[in-house]
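dumping these here so i dont lose them again. two proteins, back to back, each one seq then structure tokens. dont judge the mess
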Amino acid sequence: MNSEPMNAYLFTNARIIDPSQNMDFTGDLLVKDGIIAAVGESLDVPQDAGVLDLKGKWLVPGLIDMHVHLREPGEEYKETIESGTAAAIAGGFTAVACMPNTQPANDSAGITSFILEKAQSSARARVYPIAAITLGQKGEQLTEFGDLLNAGAIAFSDDGLPVKNAAVMRQSLEYARNFDALIISHSEELDLSRGGVMNEGRVSTILGLKGIPAAAEEIAVFRDVALAELTGGRLHIAHVSTKGSVEIVRQAKSRGVLVTAETAPHYFSLTEDAVFGYNTFAKMYPPLRTGEDRLAIIEGLKDGTIDAIATDHAPHSVLEKECEFQMAANGIIGLETAIPLSLNLVRDGYISASQMIRCMSISPSKILGVPEGGLKDGNSADICIIDPEAVFTLTRESLHSLSYNSPFIGKDLQGKAILTLVDGRPVFDPTGILLP
């Protein structure tokens, strides 16, 4: 093929998975002029189309990560919008929603516009800015929701910090109703978590580290669910990590509260045991929890209590991570490990392949109200092709992020994106499938 991408591609013999249409079959998909032109079990080959036999690899809607930290503006030494979206497309994500805890915080239309302009110039994954709930994320005065939405923000959160004042959180949910906007809760009771550096329990006692009880999350989840029920506002609970939080959300949904929830791959892949050796790459907030919590997270994904898998991609440099455990920053990167870690749940029989793709594409698009991640005729060809059998070792050198703070460095992982298309354009094609 030419070095320039063709206008039409026919992908054949793929396992096509699209939960939005209840599709999971082996067949063909045609992309023409950046649009999905046809999907079926056996399509005719157009005269002008390039043909790629996927030999049973998965062809799925482009993944959407509804919770990432791109660090720009202000902390470009950790990550930039350009490097973060490079990591995204390498992980199969065609779109990411970036949290507002930048320096300065995304609390104005000008910063939202800056983020979108930088994303446009990078020409990689789509970027959806999430704006701050309060000015400077101080939890005191609401931002101008209308101006921020007009500038391109898609939701509101003070992620990185909770909105401590319950009256301000209530006000945000009420105000957001005027715009049918989503409020994303970083659920943390600061008076319980302050000074803690890992989960409170057996391991923290052995290591002599101050712990953070599960109640620090659960009390805050309960409060914000109660406020959503009171106001009728749309609430999303970020990074659920405990059994109690899963149950609070499950009961709230049964009562009809407008609440959704996400978890991150590290919460169903690891436990607090990963901190042994004072491993700062296993330090995050919420902290890694117990085996019982991990299984409850998996059950929440299985029964639909937890709607989405989001990475909470949180890059930090060596300055913040290669230091004493108590001093190390919270957070790990996750864009380039989300597929293999989530595939483990499929291989172990906890969830189906369709459930995995729903949690990583369809549900995030619905929750955020962004263009649907689906393979319907006429949709933009935002596509991820996954080789579920590919085994690779995660190394610092293989990462596209500027940071490498991952507890999976040096580990063998199975399953990866081998091609990512945005608007039919191959933005990640490391083996030259379309662009030799």
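---- next one ----
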Amino acid sequence: MKDEYDLKNMKRRPGKVKVDPEANKMPISLRLDTSDISLLRDEADRLGIPYQTLISSILHRFVTGELIDRKEVSLKKPG
């Protein structure tokens, strides 16, 4: 997979998806690897929360810059 994609020439699909600014959540559909979903469900069970809540939390932390990359942290270890 490429590190970067040129999205300038992409065309918008007919019909705009309207986002309700008053809504807290918006339903979406996406395809994920079965093994990833299995691991997410196991972790959600361990934490005692629904797996979709866990996925939402992970995405939120990513887009707000709160999610820390393990590889990046291991590179910064003093020593």
